[in-house]
Write a structure and sequence with these properties.
By secondary structure, the chain is mainly α. The chain has 16 helices and eight strands. The chain is about 50% helix and about 5% strand. A hairpin with a 2-residue loop joins strand 5 and strand 6.
């Protein structure tokens, strides 16, 4: 009996390390880390476990998405970025802290920041896409405890939490005032939502990278990086560096914004990226449908990030409830967007009758992109066709279903 006990003890001694080595890692180490080093170590552990554990893949994909935002924010901060707080530059709305000693920035370095950001998003989308549709996911996350390093000091401080970032964006960049407590239980549906946002942001990055926008960068980006030694800094930026804040906070920024719009005359240098932008948008549409399919199948109502009509109560993030009419209107919006991107329906232009713009050809047969001439008409004439044209009545009918909060509020939330 004594020999059997020793044998059993030895067997347990061999099995216990194996059991502990294969136990699923805790996502809390990723989302509650106080330093970048701790966060990166936790992310590496989750990535290693992801192929055999859906919960680890889900958490790792989310971590890769947020570190993509950190790559962008860190790159902007390094060169003294001042947020324009403008919906017209959605890739650059992050509330990046001031940097008193920015490094010089070149066009090539800015493109490299966009490439790194876009490639990390692609990794995130692939990891989230590996999570099975029927995976049982329930990841509780306090957005005041999770965040990213915005100022490159290696720490993840309370004012860099996701809750603080959301609050700053809602206040148009102001960081004062209390940060609301926001805790959500993220489920399988929310994985589709985040993967869709990764595709949406990749589409934006790829569209920029498809073109040579050097002239715009050299001629106007001192508005965004006023102390990064851009070519016209000495001539056009006020000696005091100008005032930070909104895009239209000063006369010199208004002038530079006009220059920026005028200089959006971009030659195509990587046509495959413009084609990829359309594919990302189509994938975003597919994922949004999967998201709502999963949301409507839910029977619980537990701290929902994006609730369905059956999950009653105001959402703590938006203060809104989701009704069946909004879901139906959103699904109709997805169909409309897909029809435009596939060229089944044409986009109207205010000064052209009888023909519309084929958006599939706009992406798949790229020509130089001139913003002003696209608005006035000449630049879009190569894409004009006869066919079914989207009418304003079609879109107005959808907009009415979103009520007082408006279509844009729901669109940003629904993705």
């Amino acid at each position: 009996m004594r020999h059997f006990s020793l044998l059993l003890a030895s067997a347990l001694g061999l099995l216990l390390p194996l059991a502990s080595a294969t136990a699923a890692p805790d996502p809390a180490a990723l989302f509650e880390a106080k330093t970048v080093a701790e966060r990166n170590a936790a992310l590496a552990t989750l990535e290693a476990a992801a192929p055999g554990d859906p919960a680890s893949a889900y958490a790792a994909g989310a971590g890769e998405f947020f570190t993509a935002l950190e790559i962008l924010a860190s790159g902007l901060h390094r060169h003294g970025f001042e947020s324009p707080q403008s919906f017209m530059l959605p890739l650059m709305r992050l509330p990046v802290p001031d940097n008193p000693n920015p490094e010089p920035l070149t066009y090539e370095e800015f493109r490299a920041i966009l490439v790194a950001f876009r490639d990390r998003l692609e990794k995130s989308a692939a990891t989230l896409g590996s999570v099975p549709a029927n995976a049982d996911i329930g990841m509780v996350l306090d957005l005041t405890r999770a965040g990213i390093d915005l100022n490159e000091d290696g720490n993840i401080a309370p004012d860099e939490s996701f809750a603080a970032i959301i609050a700053a964006l809602s206040r148009n960049g102001a960081s004062d005032g209390p940060v609301p407590s926001l805790t959500f239980r993220f489920d399988r549906a929310d994985g589709y939502w985040l993967q869709g946002y990764a595709e949406f942001l990749m589409a934006q990055a790829d569209f920029w990278l498809a073109h040579d926008f050097r002239n715009m960068f050299d001629g106007s980006f001192h508005m965004l990086f006023p102390r990064a030694k851009l070519p016209l800094q000495d001539a056009l930026v006020p000696l005091d560096g100008g005032s930070s804040g909104g895009m239209l906070a000063s006369e010199w920024r208004i002038a530079d914004f006009v220059s920026l719009v005028h200089l959006v005359n971009w030659q195509v240098v990587e046509p495959e990226r413009r084609q990829a932008a359309r594919r990302h948008l189509l994938e975003m549409i597919r994922l949004s449908r999967e998201d709502w399919k999963a949301i409507r199948a839910e029977t619980d109502n537990d701290r929902e990030w994006l609730p369905g009509p059956q999950q009653k109560g105001e959402n703590p993030l938006t203060g809104l409830e989701v009704g069946e009419e909004q879901v139906q209107a959103w699904l109709a919006t997805l169909t409309m967007a897909e029809d435009l991107l596939e060229g089944r329906v044409l986009l109207p232009h205010f000064r052209i009758t009888g023909k519309g713009i084929n958006m599939k050809r706009f992406f798949d047969e790229p020509r130089p992109f001139d913003l002003v001439l696209s608005i006035t008409g000449p630049a879009i004439t190569p894409y004009l066709e006869s066919g079914k044209i989207l009418s304003s009545d079609d879109f107005d009918q959808i907009q009415r279903e979103f009520g007082g909060a408006g279509f844009l509020t729901f669109a940003l939330w629904f993705n």
